[in-house]
């Protein structure tokens, strides 16, 4: 059965895309018309040129789109708000991918497809920290909690593993952890997700059915950056949950930026320098979360007041690893050896080895890592880190 909220959100997003494409076409049209006849630049100011007349057509399209969106909201807002909505695993993965690409827009526009941050138990049920149902949903609550945080465009479903196992249930069987899985909108700024996660972890610790003795956070890719951001904001907000944080594990996390995000930003910067190409620099319309991955922004100060589409140096404020916590780093390399050319240049295809291991030429940004707490796995790519048996064995060994 098709969800009303899903139809509502998809239709709204389609209308938003229509408006965005109309803007791009109008800019391209104006650029070409003015370049063909430079006099059009002056005549267009008086409203006498075909360009100005065509602009009226574009305004009609945008006005019609706006009216359709208003009608859509009036028709479906009430129904979608009342609906008990639970997506199938496949639909959830598609929604998660959309959130990664344009999640900040979905949230700002009030689109029902925007994912709100929440925790789930091993059965996939949503938890509500602070409610009386928590003890019912976690009847075998352990004093040891492991929270698994997914990466960009992914969801909690990806921790279940495609081939070799579920890291959360393995931690439960081997070491008595109660596994919880975070689901969140990866298109938001990392710092905003980090602050919200910090507050949710505090509520979780306060309302857990038994006294929490140990908290372990495990983040894949962007998830590792969200964890580090959450630790920072715990100090800023004076939240004591970090006193229970014994371990943090980072799987292919781009601590100093992701290669693909850097390449996309460079391409956008080049395209913006050319009049005809500038309207098609679509990477600048991607989410705030993706743009944060260029350098690995963790804090509001890293992006506030900065045009993230412009070419600019790394303005990040250095964020050291949280003291009193053991930090473990896992990186992947597609080559057969760590030092061969594919591994050195490409890392795991998305994150280079130096970034995943926290290495940086600036000593202030370089992360202090013990050699025995860092492991590189050859012949693996970025997503392999989620469900590889050898990777799981390494984590289980560290957390024993």
Automatic annotation (TrEMBL):
SUPFAM superfamilies in alphabetical order: alpha/beta-Hydrolases
Could you tell me which residue ranges the GPI inositol-deacylase PGAP1-like alpha/beta domain spans? 147-304
Q: Which Pfam families match?
A: PGAP1 (PF07819)
Q: Which domain of life is it from?
A: Bacteria
Q: Which residues cross the membrane?
A: none
Descriptive protein name:
Esterase/lipase family protein
Q: What is the organism of origin for this protein?
A: Marinobacter aromaticivorans
């Amino acid at each position: 059965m098709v969800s009303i909220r899903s139809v509502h959100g998809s239709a709204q997003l389609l209308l938003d895309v229509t408006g965005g494409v109309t803007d791009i076409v109008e800019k391209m049209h104006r650029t070409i018309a003015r370049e063909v006849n430079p006099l059009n630049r002056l005549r267009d100011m008086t409203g006498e040129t075909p360009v100005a007349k065509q602009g009226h057509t574009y305004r009609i399209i945008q006005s019609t789109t706006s009216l359709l969106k208003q009608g859509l909201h009036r028709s479906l807002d009430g129904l979608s708000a009342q609906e008990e909505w639970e997506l199938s695993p496949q639909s959830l993965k598609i929604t998660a991918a959309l959130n990664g690409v344009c999640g900040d827009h979905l949230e700002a526009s009030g689109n029902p497809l925007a994912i709100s941050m929440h925790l789930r138990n091993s059965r996939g049920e949503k938890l509500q920290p602070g409610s009386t149902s928590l003890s019912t949903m976690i009847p075998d609550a352990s004093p040891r909690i492991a929270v698994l945080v997914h990466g960009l465009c992914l969801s909690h479903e990806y921790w279940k593993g495609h081939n070799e196992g579920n890291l959360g249930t393995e931690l439960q069987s081997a070491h008595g952890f109660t596994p919880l899985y975070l689901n969140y909108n990866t298109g938001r700024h990392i710092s905003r997700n980090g602050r919200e996660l910090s507050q949710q972890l505090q509520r979780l610790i306060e309302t857990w059915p038994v006294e929490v003795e140990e908290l372990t956070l495990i983040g894949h890719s962007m998830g590792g950056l969200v964890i580090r951001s959450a630790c920072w904001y715990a100090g800023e907000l004076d939240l004591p949950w970090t006193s229970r944080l014994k371990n943090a594990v980072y799987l292919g996390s781009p601590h100093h930026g992701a290669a693909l995000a850097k390449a996309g930003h460079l391409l956008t910067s080049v395209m913006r320098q050319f009049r005809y190409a500038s309207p098609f620099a679509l990477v600048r319309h991607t989410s705030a979360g993706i743009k944060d991955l260029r350098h690995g922004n963790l804090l509001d100060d890293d992006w506030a007041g900065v045009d993230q589409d412009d070419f600019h140096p790394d303005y990040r404020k250095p964020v050291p690893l949280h003291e009193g916590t053991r930090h473990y780093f896992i990186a992947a390399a597609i080559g057969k050896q760590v030092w061969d050319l594919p591994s050195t240049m490409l890392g795991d295809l998305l994150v280079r080895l130096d970034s995943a291991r926290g290495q940086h030429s600036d000593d202030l940004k370089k992360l202090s890592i013990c050699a025995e707490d860092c492991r590189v796995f050859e012949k693996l790519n970025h997503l392999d880190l989620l469900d590889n048996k050898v990777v799981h064995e390494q984590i289980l060994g560290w957390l024993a």
